[in-house]
Amino acid sequence: MNWFTNFFSSTLGRKLMMALTGLFLILFLAVHLAGNLQLLKSDGGRAFNVYAHFMTHNPLIVTISVVNFAFIAIHIIWAAILTRRNRAARGPVGYAVTNNSSSLTSRNMGILGTLILVFIVIHLRSFWYETHFGNIPLVDYDGSPVKDLFTVVDVAYTQLWFVVLYVVSMAIVGFHLYHGFGSAFQTLGLNHVKYNPAIRFIGVAFSIVVPVLFALIPILMFLDITIG
What pTM was estimated for this model as a whole? Predict the structure, then answer.
């Protein structure tokens, strides 16, 4: 076990953990988006409420959710440690010349990550906390009572400041994904000159499409526009 502890306490080990947890969170975002798109259906919230009830009562999904929260915590802690070590390595003055290969996004991953953390805290307080501890009325679907979580979300997105916060946060998430997607494959040694263009294309597409769709949900709900 000593080699295991030494490896994951090293910079390489932490970067590997960042890559693995990052890819898991990317997968989580895709699944989460698929569920949230149910909010846009013109069924009075039925599809979303049924989806939310399943996600909060299925034992396997609940277990995955716990793992997801753990991975978010690990990802944040590891990112903070790596950022601090990188700054310490540069010294108090910093580099006189910035490496051209280092993008603006990659140089500011710490700041972007901090802003995303703030958004996650607000998001969890507004939705996760209300889901588990709020006084949410029940709605009946074919004899099965479920929490009316659609109304919780719908009310939240009537507030312009919250919609703006969500849209700006999704833009930040997009920049974070743009750098993180490619970095994860590179850290795991999965990059190859033959496949790099495809990995780069998928990374760019994911970092644009997913945040844009997430951002569209509060915008369309604020404008009272439904689809399907």
Answer: 0.81
